[in-house]
Amino acid sequence: MYGLEKEPVEPFVFDLEKDVKNKTARGKQVQENVEQKIQEIKKLLREGAGEKDFDQLGILLHGYASLQKVLRKVAK
């Protein structure tokens, strides 16, 4: 009534999500980048790092692994 009607709200979609869903080069590049970073971190952890660095690298590894899971779900 008089402009107070609710308009249908579309769900918010992130730019990265659009890129991954549309299979653009940027989406593919992000997925490859994440995989490369994971492999680098795993290599550093295997070589051995200081206790402080070890904890930080572990946290970073978990973050990248989570991002990778999200990217895979979005790509489906």
List keywords for this structure.
76 residues, mainly alpha, 72% helix, single chain
Name the helix and strand elements from N-terminus to C-terminus, one letter apiece: HHH
**β content, as a range?**
under 5%
- CA radius of gyration is 19 Å
Count the E strands. 0
Instruction: State the secondary-structure class.
Output: mainly alpha
How would you describe this structure to a colleague?
Helix 1 crosses helix 2 and helix 2 (25-47) runs antiparallel to helix 3 (51-75). The mean pLDDT is 84. This protein starts with 14 loop residues before the first helix and ends with a helix. It is mostly helical. Helices cover 72% and strands 0% of the residues. It has helices spanning 15-21, 25-47, 51-75. It contains 3 helices and no strands. The radius of gyration is 19 Å and the shape is elongated. It has one domain (16-75).
Draw up the topology in text:
Layout (H helix, E strand, L loop, with lengths): L14 H7 L3 H23 L3 H25 L1
Helix pairs in contact: 1-2, 2-3
